[in-house]
Amino acid sequence: LHTLRFTVRFMLCVCVGDGTMNASPSLTSFYGRFRHFLDIIDPRTLFVTESRLKEAVQLLEDYKHGTLPPGVTNKELWGAQKIKQAIIHPDTNETIFMPFRMSGMKLFFLLQVVGLLLPNQTLASTVFWQWLNQSHNACVNYANRNATKPSPTSKFIQGYLGAVISAVSIAVGLNVLVQRANKFTPATRLLIQRFVPFPAVASANICNVVLMRHTELEEGIDVLDNNGNIVGSSRIAAKHALLETALTRVVLPMPILVLPPIIMSILEKTSLLRSRPRMILPVQSLVCLAAFGLALPLAISLFPQMSEIETSRLEPEIAMATTSKTVVYNKGL
Predict the structure, then answer these.
(1) Structural domain of 163
(2) Which of 64, 198, 253, 303 has its Cβ near the most Cβ atoms within 10 Å?
(3) pLDDT digit string (tens) for 283-310?
């Protein structure tokens, strides 16, 4: 019971926020980015109304142009910035559809994670949960991509089909190999089945990111100088952006699909769950939610969203087009 109470408190802290992040953290350090994204992915921003969003955007515009109404506090400005960054895409300035925002991943991904960790899955259930997981991932990757270049619907459909088919194939293949490993005891096979989702999801996530954002590799992404002016379109920067995003997708499922099986293997031996087997799934859901609440900000904090790269490492025409030693680009989330 003490462990469950601690888990509840921890889940509320990482999944809802503690309300103390009113000052802007430094985004040059991992800890600063972690605090920043922990605030941005606050699921309470999902319930911000359209009128409140417009108010927040207008408040930031007034601040930018020096026309702030009297009495506006720093806390209100940071609150407006939090709302805008959680809802508005930085490249298109359009509203991101709620299920595909980073602040919505905790709620919409919870069901998928619990399904992926269910023991004794059939081939049909494995295909279903992997399809659901990778379909959501594909839409999140697309909604939070670098959108400096227009992408036609046909490219999205091609990327989606390729991402989902490859991801599901990897996951099903690994699960079939485990199920056919007759040399393992039932207990060992069950333990392996619990850990199979991690390499399956991690490798599938890489395919998902690359296929959903492959147009960036073909057309390049905009890079900006220190004054925010577009210097050019770089394929090299696009490669860096996709590599960094792919690495975050490898780290993201690690705490979610590795920690819950370990914790549950311990909790299932307690007298509480032995005498109440119906509580196993709710407890597992709680553990998964806490793990995901920690994993998401940790993963997306690995690299800055606005990444920096030396101009000498980019295409010669871009290096010659600016005097800045470094340029920045939106790597996406």
Answers:
(1) 2-18+97-330
(2) 253
(3) 877 887 788 778 888 888 888 888 888 8
